[in-house]
Amino acid sequence: MTGKKIGLALGAGATRGLAHLGVLQVFNEHGLQFDCVAGSSAGALFGSLYAAGSDLNLLERLARELKEGQLLDLAVPRWGLIRGDRIEALVRTLTRGLTFAELKVPLYVVAVDVESGELVVLDRGRVADAVRASIAMPGLFVPKRLGGRLLVDGAVLAPVPVEVLRERGAGIVVAVDVHYGVAETEKIRVNNLFELFFRSLALTGRAMCYQALKGADLVIRPAVGHLSPARLHNVEEYIEQGRRAALASLPRLLALFAGKEP
């Protein structure tokens, strides 16, 4: 085992973030335990569940049964189309109302103060509050007021929070990119307002994401770029693609954990 702290950076990606679940399942099955986790948007959600020690197989069954209407509580569109209260309540239940101090693994949730323009790393208080802030995609979700700040989606400034882990002492960082891995020449069919929104966000953040990933020791990219980031219809494929990508990276992962790679 390497003496370096090994961190896991889970990237943004809306419903494509379900691929994180497959990746995390493989990590657990092979006894790979990270020293710290950072997540942005969907990565914050799944990072919180991992850090809380949640049953990943139970989460998979829950994901298969969930319907979009159960999660989306529409709002009068002053700040956003979706209030986000239902998702926050679900996260609170899944994380058992834990605070950051009560987690099994140190967790850093990334959000953005939309008024100051600053990146905010949340690591205190209730985990569900922080996750709700990190998933607040501007214009879609109502922002989260927390600690005197008006917070929105961490992907606005840090789609894959590799540097957050470096700044907190991680000597090795494994990143999972579930949103921005689509080839620049690949055409994506856009069918509705939500898909238009997510596609635009992906294109806007592409260069920023590529730059962040240069700082990772290993990048795992589930092949989910062809799947809609705005629908829950492909739960099985998201998870399966996450598992495949993690298994393909397993030799390098094991080498990193054994300290056999610089």
Automatic annotation (TrEMBL):
Transmembrane segments: none annotated. The keyword Hydrolase applies. PANTHER family: NEUROPATHY TARGET ESTERASE/SWISS CHEESE D.MELANOGASTER (PTHR14226), NTE FAMILY PROTEIN RSSA (PTHR14226:SF76). InterPro entries: Acyl_Trfase/lysoPLipase (IPR016035), NTE (IPR050301), PNPLA_dom (IPR002641). The active site is at residues 41, 153. A motif (GXSXG) lies at residues 39-43. GO terms for molecular function: hydrolase activity. Residues 8-166 form the PNPLA domain. One of its GO terms (biological process) is lipid catabolic process. This is NTE family protein RssA. Gene3D superfamilies: Cytosolic phospholipase A2 catalytic domain.
